[in-house]
Predict the 3D structure of the following.
Amino acid sequence: MTPSPRIPVAAPVLDGREREYVLECLDTNWISSAGRFIQAFETAFAEACGVRHAVATNNGTTALHLALVALGLGPGDEVIVPTLTYIASANAVTYCGATPVFVDCDRVTFNIDPSAVAAAITPRTRAIMPVHLYGHPVDMDPILALARQHNLYVVEDAAEAVGARYKDRAAGALGDCATFSFFGNKIITTGEGGMVTTDDDALAARMRLYRGQGMDPQRRYWFPVIGYNYRMTNIAAAIGLGQLERLDHHLAARARVAHAYDARLSEMTDRLVLPTSMTWARHAYWMYTVMLTDKVSKDRDQVIAELDALGIESRPVFHPMHTLPPYQESAGGPFPRAEHAGARGLNLPTFGALTAEDIDRIGVALAKVLA
């Protein structure tokens, strides 16, 4: 009997005009950081988010760093960051010489807890960085109210949340600016790539200045500031435009996968806590995330290893930042809700090409492992 193929935790779905657009780059020799697709991708992405500006970068981490640099953050400044996030959120703050101040998550969505943010604000706080974790938007109204009250910037880390919506607004249009990632496992991909969105004309201009080594746009090879080489290539933008043109298709496919999981795993809710989507949210389902209940005696990493042996790749929920070596000494804590999620949570395979048969196979494997 032929063994069943391994199911990866993520895979890109390149079923639009990506190939056509990349071949155009090759045929015209526009393969580097100039060409029509960069502007086209930026314009279309800004429209998709409902903002005036989108600034493309070469990855999601540089998008975060670029935004923070353009906002003028530096040594002595504090940025409030959820401890339950990918390390790039904290690293980008550190790159600026500023200090990430970690706070706990809420119990339902595992996003940043607004009440914890309020308690963490000090005279040195300059910004709040809510992260729309795994595709579910943060409850932004209380975050924005705190920012107005204390005159703080809000930088959305929307790396995992292309297409998510908070009430009637898109992720990426809620703070002073927002950043996205287009890594190969994201909802839409450019292979490697990122974007910053904003309605602030001056901020967008500063980001474009810093993105291109700091070269004056009106005077070639004149550099008024120390900048960075954070530019996206035309080939990457070509792939991104092809993906973005089918964003609704990609989001619908992920919603279909999530609903199939909800139905298939409903018989295991004594052993698994399934993800919740709040009534005010459109969950983009970058990852379908489950938590092991106390009835599961195995630890999370053992469950991942046993699923792997059955040909099902999964991944752990992020280790909270305050538990990682670069940030342990200054992180504060404890942060019990984030620590629980980091120890008991796992991401199941989540991408648009999964079939009903794949979901059933994953369900059978989970039932076996959790029996």
Q: What stands out?
A: Residues 214 and 225 are 5 Å apart (CA to CA). DSSP finds twelve helices and 14 strands in the chain.
